[in-house]
Amino acid sequence: MxxxxxxxxxxxxxxxxxxxxxxxxxxxxxxxFIAPMKRSIRPLFSILFLIVFAITLSCRILIRRGGRxxxxxxxTNVIVQPPVPVFNSTLLKYAAIDIGEAxxxxxxxxxxxxxxxxxxxxxxxxTWRRFNHHDIRASSxxxxxxxxxxxxxxxxxxxxxxxxxxxxxxxxxxxxxxxELIGLVKNPVDEHSGLVGSNRKYSSCAVVGNSGILLxxxxxxxxxxxxxxxxxxxxxxxxxxxxxxSKTNISFVNSNILHLCARRQGCFCHxxxxxxxxxxxxxxxxxxxxYTICNLSHRAPLIVTDPRFDMLCARIxxxxxxxxxxxxxxxxxxxxxxxxxxxxxxxSSGFQAVMLAVGICDKVSVFGFGKSTLAKHHYxxxxxxxLKLHDYEAEYDFYHDLMKSSQVMPFIxxxxxxxxxxxQ
Length: 424
Ligand SMILES: *[C@@H]1O[C@H](CO)[C@@H](O)[C@H](O)[C@H]1NC(C)=O
Ligand SMILES: *[C@@H]1O[C@H](CO)[C@@H](O)[C@H](O)[C@H]1NC(C)=O
Ligand SMILES: *[C@@H]1O[C@H](CO)[C@@H](O)[C@H](O)[C@H]1NC(C)=O
Hints:
This protein is an alpha/beta fold. The chain is built from 16 helices and 9 strands. Helix 2 (42-65) packs antiparallel against helix 3 (70-76) and helix 7 crosses helix 12 (288-297). The two termini are 51 Å apart. The chain binds 2-acetamido-2-deoxy-beta-D-glucopyranose (NAG) (3 copies). It is a single-pass type II membrane protein. Keywords: Glycoprotein, Glycosyltransferase, Golgi apparatus, Membrane, Signal-anchor, Transferase, Transmembrane, Transmembrane helix.
């Protein structure tokens, strides 16, 4: 008889899932099934059972060896499902509505037509260029001066349109996009650092936020001890190493940061060194101009987050924000929008960086997230308040659910969450 084995999750039952069917049979159940049978047929049945078991095992070993079938192996491994939390369907429905969608679409269309009227101070492409000092002597990676009406600038313009167009078209909801982050982000990052691309996740990642609470602890060494350190929005580490560490493997920014750097010669935007890859989410479509120009001169990859990943993040944060709103204020959901800047509402960079880490790491540690009345808003600046268009409280609610290692989150399916620890 197959013995009752101890599974990885510590339970004492192993389930056999026939690889050709959807029926899973726990081994101890199978034993119970065979035990009461007539003595005469018991050996026969046991042998038959063993043969089937052996075939199943060898098939699974085969599947495991043929790496490319690993997804099949995953499916056969489903063991015990924890109780599934039920999400409020009204909140899910509201969270899926993108209030700013129509406006964003219109803005993108205008940009594609070369109409910058809705871009505030960059009223025309020319003012954008002037603002960014690309008219006179900005240079591309090859040191070729880029002048007004130069063919090179025209190429930027065509590239910009193509990138923006593709990005806008790719935006949609995909519940299992978390599984693609390895291919979308980790592989290009590893390729750059000369590592052979594998589907292994990083063993441990530290996401370092910018909250002033970091100054209350000396987490520097602990942070640097992670395989990968992700930092946010170019917060500097000099003079703070004791608290924030010094190593950086991924610089995660929003496109405003790049927009500001784009004004500098060569888009200089590398507080952690020119070889540190950047991952950026685009908060205003016009920033694709900065991307198009800066992408040329970046030595390390400059990766724009996939719009499907952006959409997933947006929905999750909105769900948590709506939930918090109705629970705290007891107001109706329709009033959420005016309380939270409706169409401007956005997740924070920190939130998406944590989500990225969750997708590419086996273990995630989060530092420098959270507030304290004694701490500054940012450890490295004197910024007083926080932006209204973010709902940090709602994001903290989400992190707490992550820490409870709940395997089910709104809008995400077919994804296994790694353990997450938040250091306060
Ligand atoms: C879901 O949330 C809405 C809005 O807060 C509330 O009116 C409704 O009762 C909730 N539904 C359930 C099943 O809890
Ligand atoms: C992370 O960065 C450190 C310091 O720059 C570097 O030594 C290390 O190889 C990087 N790790 C990976 C996996 O790229
Ligand atoms: C950005 O630059 C990289 C490296 O030069 C290049 O492979 C990639 O295609 C560029 N991205 C876009 C959208 O042009």
